[in-house]
Amino acid sequence: MDKALGRLSAMSGALAVGAFTVNSCLYNVDGGERAVMFDTLRGGILPDVIGEGTHFVIPVVQRPVIMDVRTKAREIPSVTGTKDLQMVNIKLRVLWRPVEEELPRLYRELGTDFDDRVLPSIGNEVLKSVVAQYNAEELLSKRAEVSERIKAELLKRAKHFHLTLDDVAITHLTFGREFMKAIEAKQVASQEAERQQWVVRRAEQERQAVVTRAEGEAEAAQIITTAMEKTGNAIIEVRRIDAAKEIAAKLANARNVTYLPSGGGGQGGGAPGLLLNIDK
Q: What is the pTM of this model?
């Protein structure tokens, strides 16, 4: 019985040692990750990049370093000056990932926290150099152009550190209080100038209307004078008859006006009729 227990204990120990050994000889690389191998016998980081899956490793001699190669977002803030000496607070959003083929060299030179070491530094450097080439108004009116120039410069700088940038965009752009006050004052002045131009145009239109009306009245007077020279007082009589018809039409539609004919009958020498304003 004691021998059986001893054998069972020995077998359990051997299995435990075997399981520990197997577990120490295997490691996993998950999706979106890559591994580089540190080998103490072959001089440090090996040049090969290890892909996803389960792999063997020599315990004590080798040590795998797992690195994330998925695209990540990072925001880079910066306070810099424009060409016209205006201070601007700008934030840049960068979508980045490491170059897989250069992971051994990247780990050897910068370690695993390479993004904290590289991106803020080159981001601020590029932002300051590009923004300094534009004045404050151009940063607003040419925002897409500025963003493209920043992206191009960042791509060049990131290549030196074995990084790839998938997208670069300006997400925040504000100016100092003095500049904002100047912009507001400029807008108010522009609106006032437009209002004054509108007033001037309106006055000009009114003047042209007065001139046109005066020219029409002068032309009408000239026509009447010419007609009187040709026909004598006939034109005046026609105008008087037209005016009488218009007055008679208005009085006929009035409710409180009563016409009393004269007592002379149809004789032309009788007294004229009376118009009574009868208030009800």
A: 0.57
